[in-house]
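Work package 3, deliverable 3.1, input record:
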Amino acid sequence: MREVDVTDLVGRAVDGSPRAVARLISLVENASPRLREVTAALTPLAGAARIIGLTGSPGVGKSTSTSALVTAFRAQGKRVGVLAVDPSSPFSGGALLGDRVRMQDHATDRDVFIRSMASRGHLGGLAWATPQAIRVLDAAGCDVIFVETVGVGQAEVAVAALADSTIVLVAPGMGDSIQAAKAGILEIADIFVVNKADRDGAQQAIRDLRNMVALADHGPDAWKPPIVPTVASRDEGIGDVVEAIDKHYAWLSAGGTLLRRRLARARDEIEAIAVTALRERMGDLHGDRRLDALAEGVVSGEHDPYTAADELIAAVTKDAR
Amino acid sequence: MREVDVTDLVGRAVDGSPRAVARLISLVENASPRLREVTAALTPLAGAARIIGLTGSPGVGKSTSTSALVTAFRAQGKRVGVLAVDPSSPFSGGALLGDRVRMQDHATDRDVFIRSMASRGHLGGLAWATPQAIRVLDAAGCDVIFVETVGVGQAEVAVAALADSTIVLVAPGMGDSIQAAKAGILEIADIFVVNKADRDGAQQAIRDLRNMVALADHGPDAWKPPIVPTVASRDEGIGDVVEAIDKHYAWLSAGGTLLRRRLARARDEIEAIAVTALRERMGDLHGDRRLDALAEGVVSGEHDPYTAADELIAAVTKDAR
């Protein structure tokens, strides 16, 4: 493999080269040794994109909805990125998502970048690689970036933490998906979309959500999540979703919430990188022998794990001087 | 609330007081400020118990199976602990598990300790509080401790990491639970139990598992997971499960695998405690202002998150001297 010229790659990504964008995302996804260099080159170029999370149970029509939203933003002349993150498998290293077919509508559009990512065995993977991939798309001039993920509790929360606005998709006849998700989705949803709204039960789903939203404690200046019915497969209601996204973005910007969310995100990212680095340093300590000796002491009952952790921290700290 | 006398509590737990055991588990579960003291008092007393993980999809009969296994070990005169961990909800702070009814068979038995635990919003919670709760039961003289959790991918892996032996429960007619879990369960299962083996499809489930096990690459000295059919609700096959557990334990002990697993567990625990401590130190830095300033620099594009993380580590390290 040829040596990667990061500066050249970033330059071509900024010029909108899909190949350069794909290459950079691969670099960050595979935790390339050049990751640090890539991130350093991208950071000053990023920050203009709106990041929109989109989550929901399997079968609610996430892919179809995302595709319709991409079309809508393209009609406004916006450059659009899509990251489809699959956090469901703790073992798979591949990124095989279900229905990516709809996305092929955009395959020949040079102003649409679509990428599937696996989360590599843990949600830490999502938290770690996804911000870098977002940065790539942001630097490549995407005005809007969709981060789509299957709603499975923790992944929902993770995607909400990465996004400026989070859309929670539900569909009628999906069993008790609304009930099941109840505890969590209100805390993360900025916009509810009831897809497949031509089906039986759609009005009930809308009523359920309306009651949930009404019962939640919204302060006078708080954002009250709108509930938008759609039939994404026929492009119905997509304009209303775009309007809701725009309204939420205006609210975020006006109240300073956008900056607060982005600062919180940056804090989380810095902390995650620092913790990872310290963890690696712990593992590396004396070829792992120090940690082994401490573990032996815990198993034999010689010392407790807190005392062992103190010694480990002291060792890491000393090595860092 | 009265001041907690940890030494007294631990003493009474060792004497087998259910109230003292319950109190100590509450202390570790709620991350009491006395947690460190509790752990230090427990560590030298723990290490004799066999820790058995039990996982499976909702509806396979985990609770019924655990209850039947408790009865079987009680018949041998063993003291038994059960920790039922619910990792499914990222928001609930409570520990509401579905069918705990069967467990009430053991409610009046002073040699059975049963406790439900919530994982407090993240799997880190499982990894963090569960080892301490296991230590409480171990110090209280439990010969066998079952850690029961709903199989949802990551939780399965987490429970396997905590256990000496891991039982994976499946049931016929549970849709494609075996298929879905395929990638993961082979790596964690020491014993497969096909519960509800009187139902249609049981033979097929057993055949599927047998093929999976046969295809896996077991070395000549490796453990080959047995497949045990049961009807837990009628106590059928439970003796075979106990036999499989005993055989696995003998194999673990003879080959030194038991010690290796326990050392790996202690390493993970020490590292997790150290990382948590360092993370807290990061958050505390200058009343959080240092991290805020670094985050502002990332959002404005002034520096990248890796450079910010370096500064954060340097600050934590300096404070530790």
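Residues 269-320 of chain B form one domain.
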